[in-house]
User: Fold this.
Amino acid sequence: MKSFKRSYIASVGTNVPDNIMYNKDFEAFLDTTDEWITTRTGIKRRHIAPRGVDLKASELGAVAVRRAIEQAGLEPQDIDGIICATFTPDSFFPSTACRIQAITGCSRAFAYDISAACAGFVFALTSANSLIVSGVAKNIVIVGAEVISKSLDWKDRTTCILFGDGAGAVVLRGTNDESKGVLATQIQSDGNLGDILVLPSSGSDCTMKMKGNEVFKHAVKMMSEMSQKVLDSTGLSVNDVDLLIPHQANIRIIQAVAERLNVPREKVVINVERYGNTSSASIPLALEEAWKDNRVKSGTRILFTALGGGVAVGSALVQF
Ligand SMILES: CC(C)(COP(=O)(O)OP(=O)(O)OC[C@H]1O[C@@H](n2cnc3c(N)ncnc32)[C@H](O)[C@@H]1OP(=O)(O)O)[C@@H](O)C(=O)NCCC(=O)NCCS
Assistant:
């Protein structure tokens, strides 16, 4: 396959469970309040797989992928690769991406998962962009798909109130039109910070553990620094950015990152109040809303940034 000068985001598709959990619902079984959750996190509700239903990340993700492929005007046969970012995979193997491939009928595609937790979307975008510009593939679907509700300790008020389930996919396509596409990405990891955010795979307690204050502090610093780095690598400044779409973890993290970068409030896309933290699905969920609200037009430059367990951090500058 021939290589391309750029890859661009052609479409987005999302999917969340119908079931909604409100802050008030936590008051029935936890020592917490709607007021605490709203003021400390900005979250008011989240979509959660109904209790007792064994929803798979692949089932959520496949619908998002199908929608993104349709939206791009493509057929499943046109897809060369599926990269799924998830920390709640159906199984260690087959990968969730392979399951999604089977459900969606993208039978020509390669498919694999990546593990970068909440930074998964930016890591997947970076991988897919590299595969396209190097000529390995022309059309790649990136999907963040998470059923986080099954990884939570529902007795731990410091974590379970933060998250929601969901999936978001984009189709990334090769082009030689240099007026649009992924302008730059930067990814980095710091394994020494691994213990601040952990989901164990074995042992007596396989639920998520988090040092909230530590994560908060590193998220603000590292997402801001990565975003500045990606801007510097293109020679563009923050004034050249039309929209900032940060990972939707906590309204206070989002505001602090925007403040550090000097991005005015009206340029920041925020929907954390309705979804909570959906990990690798949060950026495509916010992108779809911005697109539907007519905030994404030809030429719009969007800065994505995210941090997740690992610690993994990444930023990307994309022109539409
Ligand atoms: C978790 C988080 C919301 C906690 O907010 P905070 O303002 O840092 O609050 P603290 O952890 O300092 O806790 C303050 C008090 O509230 C309490 N508290 C924690 N969760 C609570 C809840 N759901 N309801 C009521 N009180 C709660 C704490 O126990 C603590 O009580 P204490 O002072 O008696 O010890 C915040 O640290 C955060 O969002 N961190 C980042 C998490 C994240 O985004 N993770 C994913 C990254 S991808």
